[in-house]
Amino acid sequence: MKTALVVTSNEKIALYFSNLLGGEFDRVEIVESGYGARNDAAIGDYSFILIDSPLCDEAGCDLAAVLSLSSPAGIVYLVKNSLLAEMTERLSEFGIFVVEKPISKQLFLQAMKLSVVGSHRVEKLKSENDRLYEKIEELRLVDRAKLVLVSCLNMTEQQAHRYIEKQSMDLRLPKTEVAKNILTTYEN
Asked: What is the DSSP letter of 93?
């Protein structure tokens, strides 16, 4: 389910963006403060976050940075024209779209869609990175087990490799489990 979070202390803006985003998202939640947004973001899974600065309890810049680090959501930060350059410089490194207000409906929808697409790309890269990290950890574990077999049983590296593969096939276990069993047996 695609969910959006709108953070604004202005009721008219909350209603406007709630209606506008209602056509794009399954659910739109409105929060009035940075504190409330931090709490909601910690428990919610949002596809998009809109922050209309300033908020009732803070400017919103720090909130945007924190949410970008803790959430995969696309984030658009609305700011008055006089602060546009400063906020763009501060928030661009976090992948946050900074847009001046007032904003046209068309420009807002484009910014929202671009931020969501960007967040999907980042999420895919993160999952690929996690998958590669798991693969590296698996290789390290198997290499440690091979080293133990070489040092404890005087096998060659090829023999150790073949032994782990054969045990994996014979016992129908992943190589990581075979490696863990070898390490448990010989490292104690």
From this structure: G
**30 within 8 A of 74, measured Cβ to Cβ:** no
pLDDT tens, 117-142? 888 888 888 899 999 999 999 999 99
What is the spatial order of strands in the sheet that 3-7 belongs to? 27-31, 3-7, 48-52, 74-80, 97-101
- CA distance between the termini of the chain: 49
Tokens of 118: 């960007």
pTM value is: 0.70
**Residue 55 DSSP code:** P
Q: What are φ and ψ of residue 157, in 5° steps?
A: -60, -40
What would the two tokens of residue 132 be?
């590669």
Give the Cα separation of 150 and 46 in Å (integer).
Answer: 50
Residues 6+ apart with CB under 8 A from 20: 105, 108, 109
Element containing residue 168 per DSSP (H, E):
helix 157-171
Q: What share of the chain is helix, strand, coil (3-state, %, to 5)?
A: 65, 15, 20
Length of the chain: 188
Question: Per-residue pLDDT for 157 more than 90?
Answer: yes
Q: Which residues contact 59 (CB under 8 A, 6 or more apart)?
A: 53
Compute the distance between CA of residue 31 and CA of residue 51 in angstroms, rounded to an integer.
10
